[in-house]
């Protein structure tokens, strides 16, 4: 299970098995989506499978998660998402009303994100050989001229910005799955981020890095960026927007909210001279009202992420071994 969690074991799987097997320069970049030059256009292409349990949770379900996840992977390369495919694996015995509800949520999410689902596939497996419904989506989008967003472009001095409160999706899944109550309902943050990214690029096309911190949370994403760019990252703990409900749930369960999954947040590395303008544009957008400057990229401790704690100390935020809570997306 750890190999599917987006942490060190997932990286090991890529480095030791998949990258050597498929070996090409595009794949070796290990970005959220591949950027390809085809017919004079720059296309972003991404694919992802969704195996969330339970299928329905506060704030969303498997259907909108499958659309938003792929739309956001495309957006993290600066692309304007255009169209998706959708492949269903259904377990024998699943109620057609469940499949219909998921399909309708996908259609609504696609309309909200400004994309169309143009092709797909359906397979059925025997009872006991699946878990109700699995969905795989792939998507393409167009990357504007002059945009070059990838983890290798992080530079010392870059402002590190997160688009809003973190940890909501993972805690929402956990509350339903484990039957836990935290005093208030915690809803997933699943949402499309393409329009938010477009608003940021309207300020400056020179955004260096974008990443949506899904599996492994903010901690895993920042470690991946630091290692890919050979730079360090320094965070200010008190600046990181962790909602009280998330902090309380994580404290109760012994989890670190920086490793809890998100599905409607992004982290950006922005040149310091444009950081305030980008922050203002983000806060003016519905998906970025909680945008916050949480740290900076530094030349010290290359490949490492450190956190300045509220007590005046410093701790290392390492790449997690696997996901604290599996099957969250």
Task: List the main descriptive attributes of the protein structure presented here.
single chain, alpha+beta, Phosphoribosyl-aminoimidazole Synthetase, Chain A, domain 2, 5-stranded mixed beta sheet, 7-stranded mixed beta sheet, 14 strands, 60s Ribosomal Protein L30, Chain: A, 329 residues
Describe the structure.
By secondary structure, the protein is an alpha+beta fold. It has 2 domains: 110 residues, PurM-like, N-terminal domain (60s Ribosomal Protein L30, Chain: A, 2-Layer Sandwich); 166 residues, PurM-like C-terminal domain (Phosphoribosyl-aminoimidazole Synthetase, Chain A, domain 2), CATH 3.90.650.10. The chain is built from 9 helices and 14 strands. The model has no long low-confidence stretch (mean pLDDT 93).
Q: Which fold name is given in CATH as the topology of the largest domain?
A: Phosphoribosyl-aminoimidazole Synthetase, Chain A, domain 2
Most strands sheet: 7 strands, mixed
State which percent range the strand residues make up. Answer: 15-25%
CATH class of the largest domain: Alpha Beta
CATH architectural type of the largest domain:
Alpha-Beta Complex
How large, in whole angstroms, is the Cα Rg?
Answer: 19 Å
Number of helices: 9
Mean pLDDT: 93
| Shape designation | globular
Q: What is the CATH superfamily of the largest domain?
A: PurM-like C-terminal domain
Q: SSE order, as H and E?
A: HHEEEEHEHEEEHHEHEHEHEEE
Strand ordering within the main sheet = 9-11-8-12-10-13-14
Helix coverage percent: 25-40%
| N/C terminus separation | 13 Å
Low-confidence stretches: none
Q: Pairing-aware structural class of the strands and helices?
A: alpha+beta
Count of domain modules: 2
Q: How many extended strands?
A: 14
């Amino acid at each position: 299970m750890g190999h599917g969690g987006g942490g060190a074991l997932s990286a090991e799987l890529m480095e030791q098995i998949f990258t050597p097997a498929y070996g090409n320069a595009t794949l070796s970049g290990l970005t959220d989506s591949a950027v390809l030059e085809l017919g004079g256009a720059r296309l972003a292409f991404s694919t992802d499978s969704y195996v969330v349990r339970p299928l329905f949770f506060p704030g969303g379900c498997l259907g909108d998660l499958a659309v938003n996840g792929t739309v956001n992977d495309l957006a993290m390369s600066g692309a304007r998402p255009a169209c998706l495919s959708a492949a269903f694996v259904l377990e024998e015995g699943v109620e057609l009303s469940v499949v219909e509800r998921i399909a309708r949520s996908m259609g609504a999410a696609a309309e909200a994100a400004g994309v169309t689902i143009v092709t797909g596939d359906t397979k059925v497996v025997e009872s006991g050989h699946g878990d109700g419904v699995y969905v795989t989506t792939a998507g393409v989008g167009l990357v504007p001229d002059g945009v070059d967003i990838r983890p290798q472009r992080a530079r010392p001095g870059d402002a590190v910005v997160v688009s809003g409160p973190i940890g909501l999706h993972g805690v929402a899944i956990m509350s339903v799955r484990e039957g836990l109550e935290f005093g208030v309902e915690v809803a997933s943050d699943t949402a499309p981020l393409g329009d938010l990214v477009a608003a940021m690029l309207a300020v400056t096309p020179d955004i260096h890095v974008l990443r949506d911190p899904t599996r492994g949370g903010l901690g895993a994403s920042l470690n991946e960026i630091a290692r890919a760019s050979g730079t360090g990252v320094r965070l200010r703990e008190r600046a990181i927007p962790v909602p009280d409900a998330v902090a309380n749930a994580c404290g109760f369960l012994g989890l670190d909210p920086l490793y809890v999954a998100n599905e409607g947040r992004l982290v950006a590395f922005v040149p310091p001279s444009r950081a305030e303008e980008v922050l203002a544009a983000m806060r003016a957008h519905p998906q970025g009202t909680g945008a916050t400057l949480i740290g900076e990229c530094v030349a010290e401790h290359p490949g490492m992420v450190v956190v300045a704690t509220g007590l005046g100390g410093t701790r290392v935020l390492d790449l997690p071994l696997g996901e604290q809570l599996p099957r969250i997306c």
